[in-house]
Amino acid sequence: MAEKETRNERVYAGIRAEILTGLRKPGEPLRTAELCKTFECSVGVARESLLRLAERDLVEERPMQGFRVVSLSTADLDDLTEARLEIETLALRYSVRQGDAAWEARLVGAHHLLSVTPRQEEGGAQPYSAAWGKAHGAFHTALIDGCRNRHLLAVALRLRDKGELYRRWSVAAPQPGRDVPAEHRGLLDAVLARDADLAAARLTAHLEATHQVLARGL
After folding, report:
1. Are residues 115 and 145 in the same domain?
2. SS3 state at 67
3. Are 104 and 212 in the same domain?
4. Which residue among 105, 156, 174, 179 is buried most deeply as judged by most CB within 10 Å?
5. Per-residue three-class SS string for 68-136
6. 3-state DSSP assignment of residue 146
7. Cβ neighbours, 10 Å, residue 9
8. Is the same domain home to 132 and 42?
């Protein structure tokens, strides 16, 4: 049983990574036969992974057409940001109030990794490197990982995944005067000070500023 769960998790994580890193484009069909060959798995395992990804809003299933990477739109981005402003800030408040010392240590470590990871690869055409994108996602996940309400946390993490997909496919759009590292540091400081109101306000400002950049760049 453990071996089966490990195999299923490997395939799920592999497809998810291909979507979030841009190897699979929005709207691109996800054919089970090709996935079975790529990940050396059965049709059942591939389909189970696709259904899990559909639950996380990274994949959509269309009648008679099968699975495909979810499509992106400005209207969906607006709805996504609105949901994140409500749910992610609530999860952050819970995290600030409930997180223990081990959570604080994970958060500090995630912020350090983000701060030392180059945002862009030398000569790269993308607005940020894959390593920075991974570190950025890990930091924002760590912010809310102190939340003990597993249902709330699961919804918040699902929305974060969708946000990362928009970040990957949005053309870089400059925002004069914005200091993203300072925003991240401000979030960390507010959380470590256990100031839930300040942390939520700073996360709100951060998400709203990011939404402006992504909406212009779609």
Report:
1. yes
2. strand
3. yes
4. 156
5. EECCCCHHHHHHHHHHHHHHHHHHHHHHHHHCCHHHHHHHHHHHHHHHHCCCCCCCCCCCCCHHHHHHH
6. coil
7. 12
8. no
CATH number at residue 15: 1.10.10.10
Q: What are 46's two structure tokens?
A: 């591939």
Q: How far apart are CA 91 and CA 150, in angstroms?
A: 10
Q: Measuring CA to CA, how many Å separate 70 from each of 21, 55, 57, 78?
A: 14, 11, 7, 16
User: pTM of this prediction?
Assistant: 0.86
Burial of 190 (0-12, 13-18, 19+ CB in 10 A): buried
Question: pLDDT for 174-217, tens place per residue?
Answer: 567 789 999 999 999 999 999 999 999 999 999 999 999 889 88
Q: Do 172 and 196 belong together in one domain?
A: yes
86, 152 in Cβ contact below 8 A? no
Span 21-62, pLDDT tens digits: 888 999 999 999 999 999 999 999 999 999 999 999 999 998
| Amino acid of residue 75 | A
- For residues 99 and 8, membership in a common domain is answered with no
pLDDT of residue 63: 83
Instruction: Output the domain CATH number for residue 118.
Output: 1.20.120.530
Range of the domain at 22: 2-69
Same domain for 139 and 93, yes or no, is yes
- For CA atoms 81, 83, 86, 92, the dihedral sign is negative
Quote the pLDDT of residue 124. Answer: 60
Tell me if 103 sits within 8 A of 95, measured CB to CB. Answer: yes
